[in-house]
Amino acid sequence: MTAPSTAPAGRPLVRLRHVTKRFGGFTALDDVSLDVNAGEVVVVIGASGSGKSTLCRTINRLETIESGTIEIDGERLPEEGRDLARLRAEVGMVFQSFNLFPHRTVLDNITLAPVRVRRVPRAQAEARARELLERVGLSDQASKRPTQLSGGQQQRVAIARALAMDPKVMLFDEPTSALDPEMITEVLDVIKDLAASGMTMLVVTHEMGFARSVADRVVFMDEGQVVEDAAPEQFFTAPATERARDFLSKVLSH
Ligand SMILES: Nc1ncnc2c1ncn2[C@@H]1O[C@H](COP(=O)(O)OP(=O)(O)O)[C@@H](O)[C@H]1O
Ligand SMILES: [Mg+2]
């Protein structure tokens, strides 16, 4: 069951309808319908194993689906081919593990996809990469390698790398879960700035304070289903379901 969306009007940049994903006999996404509208920040929360990463991965077609439809800005994601590659490039993704190329410089990590996939001239890609590094507070790190950076810095490079493809939507899958506590804020601040700049995003996180302050909507998942889809104030103060109340009592109790 999907609760009605409380989203403000903006065209849906991501639209899932009745999406079901199975791994063998196990249903990881169970009839999920969800919109992420232009300019919105949708925060996805839920227990481990509830299907949050699978949701992100299906939106990017890193996983195929058994049934349902996924549209990116009004275009249905095909199973394969050139249109899939094009639509995929419109969705930027940042993972828990930063997934940078370890032997390349920070600048190379950011320019690689624009140069190879988008055929952006190198000088132009580098100029843009330097702008993005400044935006994430790393202008002085361009020639370093990822291993010379802290986890928080690496994750900010990963964000800059995703932005370099000028995505319409950004997906963040637990972007701070692999970080030492003192580095969480610097990454959340970058994501907050992005949100304030109007970037459309879906963020999977366990950072409840962040969720409450930045989300336009909170989506709560349990056992592969979207159980609640509500404004953060409503979700955190008066969750509609027992499942959400139970989850919140566990994560907010300490
Ligand atoms: N490649 C896979 N093969 C089999 N099961 C998987 C695979 N990926 C995820 N799952 C299962 O799907 C469920 C949801 O996983 P996931 O989306 O990673 O949850 P979350 O991100 O909310 O912790 C889990 O039970 C997980 O074990
Ligand atoms: Mg996950």
Helix content: 25-40%
- Radius of gyration, CA atoms, in whole angstroms: 18 Å
Number of helices: 9
Largest sheet: 6 strands, mixed
Layout of helices and strands, plus pairs?
Layout: E1 12-23, E2 26-37, E3 41-46, H1 52-59, E4 67-72, E5 75-76, H2 82-89, E6 91-94, H3 106-116, H4 122-135, H5 151-163, E7 169-173, H6 181-196, E8 200-204, H7 208-214, E9 217-222, E10 225-230, H8 232-237, H9 242-251
Parallel strand pairs: 3-8, 3-9, 6-7, 7-8
Antiparallel strand pairs: 1-2, 1-4, 4-5, 9-10
The chain binds adenosine-5'-diphosphate and magnesium ion.
The site of magnesium ion (MG) has 4 residues, from α1.
Which characteristics define this entry?
binds adenosine-5'-diphosphate; binds magnesium ion; 10 strands; globular; alpha/beta; six-stranded mixed β-sheet; 254 residues; disordered N terminus; four-stranded antiparallel β-sheet
Walk me through this protein's architecture.
By secondary structure, this protein is α/β, with parallel strands linked by helices. Helix 3 (106-116) crosses helix 4 (122-135) and helix 4 (122-135) packs across helix 5 (151-163). The protein has helices at 52-59, 82-89, 106-116, 122-135, 151-163, 181-196, 208-214, 232-237, 242-251, and strands at 12-23, 26-37, 41-46, 67-72, 75-76, 91-94, 169-173, 200-204, 217-222, 225-230. Residues 1-8 have low confidence and may be disordered. It is 37% helix and 25% strand. It is globular and about 55 Å long. The protein starts with 11 loop residues before the first strand and ends with a helix. It has a six-stranded mixed sheet, sandwiched between helices. The chain has a four-stranded antiparallel sheet with strand order 2-1-4-5, with helices on one face. A hairpin with a 2-residue loop joins strand 9 and strand 10 (225-230). It is built from nine helices and ten strands. The structure holds adenosine-5'-diphosphate and magnesium ion. Adenosine-5'-diphosphate (ADP) binds next to strand 2 and helix 1.
